[in-house]
Every structure is written in structure tokens, then in C-alpha cells.
Specification:
Elements (H helix, E strand, L loop, with lengths): L10 H10 L2 H15 L3 H17 L4 H21 L3 H5 L3 H9 L7 H16 L12
Protein name: DUF1048 domain-containing protein
Pfam family, one: DUF1048
InterPro entries: UCP029876
């Protein structure tokens, strides 16, 4: 944490962060991108492909996403240092790998929320009250 985190935020910064998101998440993102840039080309290519996929299907909030991308950088930095082949990291099915990887970061995922909303709506339409919340707010 930086020294700034112990000080109250100015009103202007609070408003700005409402629009742009927390500055801490942006700092973490820039650090992650620098780590990826330092990887050997084939590892960097794999991480960038994963990143594209995760941007569509990964956690929706900044904190979960930042943690996930930092862990991804850790994994590929260690794999590059150990000389682990790309195929050995992913196995035969890259989608299976990334889906299993994402399971660790499901909180905050808009996809999870939408699945719950969809299931709840179908339950209601079928006349079944399962007690699930419908987050249609």
C-alpha cells in the first residue's frame, strides 16, 4: 500500500474515482502490464491471448481482476524462469485451463450474476420459487 492510502481522499478524487475507478487498481494494472512486457515473446503472446479471453469472461470488478492478472503474471514469470513449455502450462485444451483458472476469481463476475439472474427468471416463469435472488436492479 502506498502512503496515500492512510490519508482521506479529497472530494474531487472521490468523484473522479467514481467515474474512472480506484487509482490503486490502475497502478496494479500498469505494474502487471510491465511484468508481461518483460516476459519472453512466446510467454507474452500466451498471456496476451489469455488476457483477451479474461477481459470478456473474467471477474467484473477491478480488485478481483487485478488479483487474477497478478496471479497470471506470477504463473508465467515462474514458468518462463523454469523453462516450462507453453503446452505444458495449458495442456491440450486452453479453454479448459482458463476456465479452471477463472474459478478462483468468480466473485464480482458479471457472468455469474447474469447466470443467477437468468436462472431465477426461468424458475419464476416456471412457477418455481427457489429462494434465489433476482438482481434486476
Amino acid at each position: 500500500m502506498d502512503a496515500e492510502s492512510n490519508q482521506p481522499k479529497s472530494r474531487a478524487r472521490q468523484y473522479l474515482e467514481v467515474v474512472t475507478g480506484p487509482w490503486e487498481d490502475k497502478r496494479r494494472w500498469r505494474q502487471y502490464k510491465a511484468r508481461v512486457k518483460a516476459l519472453p515473446e512466446n510467454y507474452r503472446t500466451a498471456v496476451e491471448a489469455l488476457e483477451r479471453y479474461l477481459m470478456h469472461f473474467g471477474p467484473g470488478d477491478g480488485t478481483d481482476a487485478a488479483s487474477m492478472f497478478e496471479d497470471l503474471a506470477d504463473l508465467f514469470e515462474q514458468s518462463a524462469a523454469d523453462g516450462t513449455p507453453i503446452r505444458e502450462i495449458f495442456g491440450e485444451d486452453p479453454v479448459e485451463f482458463v476456465e479452471a483458472f477463472m474459478q478462483n476469481y468468480s466473485m464480482g463476475s458479471y457472468i455469474r450474476r447474469e447466470r443467477e439472474r437468468f436462472t431465477s427468471a426461468i424458475d419464476r416463469a416456471a412457477g418455481e420459487d427457489t429462494g434465489r435472488e433476482d438482481r434486476t436492479v
